[in-house]
């Protein structure tokens, strides 16, 4: 088979094995579809070995001769402000462009001799990364005319390079306790000042106000707002007709900004990257829009870097399009940018074959890339499934496995991606106790914070393997972590309740999802099927037929479909005050043109219980679900 196809794996659970076979067949179909597209367009076949050969010969060999692999600079407060707020010149922009880790902080009073140069900047990485990062900061100081020179008292411990003060004292290179201010790190993007957090909108995207005056900072904030805003599914359907149309509206607004003559002078590489990161997850359908934005950036003269092309590669990794991966790589080389560690990481992720992984990692070592401290996390993340497979024969628990990984890769190898990969595989193996233990270990031993994706992984395997107790335990863990549920969480919980024929659990999850505006297509489709098959749920008497006089027509015999025949007690998924509206929609004149019953019930919840956005139950969901499951057990 192809190195791009996911292998089929046999698991203790037959359902997990079946899902693995589905994933394998899906990857085969995806590659056949891409090959058909390649044949139609007349493109040459893709060869991962050819791409590996190109990467090997075009990657620069980094060296690590700088003492301690770091260099420390002293800058003025004015330069420090530029490194925090100047769009395109912040430590996050410089670090992304040069692959250099940058830390900046203000020492406590008295730590440095009195002078204008009171902020410490530490550059860490390869010799090349440190050199180019220092050049970028030097360019910032020359534009602001705040030249960085050593204070006279520190002249004996400082070597001056250009306009930068470079203390050579080891004590000045590492921050100690009692810092005068926070440590700003280029690896922590959430620290960037002005970064727009995720938020929810209930109006049209076009109504979001644009800046009164276009500046680089205002334009970036507007683009970030468009890409980070989240519109509830029901709101998107009501305003745009579908979620897809809502996404196209956001893309149209982004394009308007990039093609606006007024905003042209305020465009920045950071804004371009933000827009590209928003588009790439949608896959091939928006690839023309990606190329259009990139062409626009080249036309207006925006400075590009290797990370721009790496963002384009993320979309190829998502759809496993190796041919276009090579096309983007060639375009990257034509723009005179060389592949870096992140490019190799993306290439590793697009390949599914373990033997190919070993060969790629071997070439990375020959390119001297594995000396980078970040490479350890890249390799460990890619090989964690192989390491887990080796430990399956003599499984001693999560703590012993993590200790072996620390011995193999060193401490600090764990990433959020590696954690999710481990959770996914442990869930497929049915080791749910190990899943919860892994979360506890990660929270207590690392700075990684589990998120809603982490919860949904566990809920998905609990649904597949019909384990409601696991879902309750996971909800309890994440309630303590303060992680709210999203649409996918409710969909998985509702699917679990339906598969187990638990009417009380179905009613509980459905009502909470309606009140929180987190109903999905899968949920209302299932509810519509229930009410279509069992219309007597709307009658006072749970009899065989509805009163035809109330609906204006004769009703058909109410024989539930086999999917609901096994229910010990059919669920009630509506409130008494909704009966008349539902009967009119199901049996009245609007029955052919009105929405399905599931959609109608969700709309009526929003009508009768308005203003419940951000609503949370007083009793935690794990407690309510446990009580509902206990009540369902009494019905059996």
From TrEMBL:
<protein>
    <recommendedName>
        <fullName>Pentatricopeptide repeat domain-containing protein</fullName>
    </recommendedName>
</protein>
<dbReference type="InterPro" id="IPR011990">
    <property type="entry name" value="TPR-like_helical_dom_sf"/>
</dbReference>
<feature type="region of interest" description="Disordered">
    <location>
        <begin position="158"/>
        <end position="184"/>
    </location>
</feature>
